[in-house]
Specification:
Blueprint (H helix, E strand, L loop, with lengths): L1 E5 L6 H12 L3 E3 H11 L2 H11 L6 H12 L8 E4 L5 H14 L5 E6 L2 H15 L6 H15 L2 H7 L3 E5 L4 H13 L7
Parallel strand pairs: 1-3, 1-4, 2-3, 4-5
Helix pairs in contact: 2-3
The protein binds adenosine monophosphate (AMP).
Length: 193
């Protein structure tokens, strides 16, 4: 199963991806996690990315694509993957499409977790407290949400047009949301034409 999880920052993508990983037996690939690892290791890429991430902006498409390409060349993706945090804009969606075509591994589905903005603001504040992420300050969260609305949200239409999109209600208990995702994956298309 080759899956993309779409949703605003704090919509629960990471939590659901962890569950999907054990259910489907495929790795969770989060471009945010890959970038944070590069920052923690202090690689040249990490040093470059840190300031951009702390400001809530997107790291350059070329850097992230390079990193993703490298990750997708590893053997553990042979049976699929759960992609979280990529693509973030239409250019990335096109790049992903090309890359997966080249690898002969097209996407099976794109699941969008739908969460109202109030709940997002609440969740990210809680996460800032629990995880101490340096990009979860109120100002950065606002910026990331703005970028999400402007650049990432339009991807839902893009994936609906090519009939890959499944919209799932992301409010409620983690287990209930997880069941909704599994249900949605069993159905060919869950959005109206
Ligand atoms: P995330 O953990 O997905 O919320 O990502 C944290 C931060 O990493 C984002 O705010 C961006 O600065 C950067 N990032 C993660 N994924 C991408 C991506 N696909 N394109 C550009 N920047 C990204």
């Amino acid at each position: 199963m080759r899956l993309v999880l779409l949703g605003a920052p704090g919509s629960g993508k990471g939590t659901q991806a962890t569950r999907l990983t054990s259910e489907l037996g495929v790795p969770h690939i989060s471009t945010g996690d890959l970038l944070r690892a590069a920052v923690a290791e202090g690689t040249p890429l990490g040093l470059k990315a840190k300031a951009v991430m702390d400001a809530g902006h997107l790291v350059s498409d070329a850097i992230v694509l390079d990193m993703l390409e490298d990750r997708l060349s590893r053997a553990d993706v042979a049976h699929g993957f759960i992609l979280d945090g990529y693509p973030r804009n239409l250019a990335q969606a096109d790049a992903l499409d090309l890359l997966l075509r080249r690898l002969g591994q097209p996407l099976n589905a794109v699941v969008k977790l739908e969460v109202p903005i109030d709940a997002i603001v609440e969740r990210t504040a809680l996460r800032a407290h629990e995880e101490g992420r340096t990009d979860d300050t109120p100002e950065t969260v606002r910026k990331r949400l703005q970028i999400y609305q402007e650049q990432t949200a339009p991807l839902a239409d893009h994936y609906a047009k090519i009939r890959l999109l499944k919209v799932v209600d992301g409010i409620g208990q983690v287990e209930a949301i997880f069941s909704r995702i599994l249900m949605a994956l069993q159905h060919p298309q869950t959005v109206p034409d």
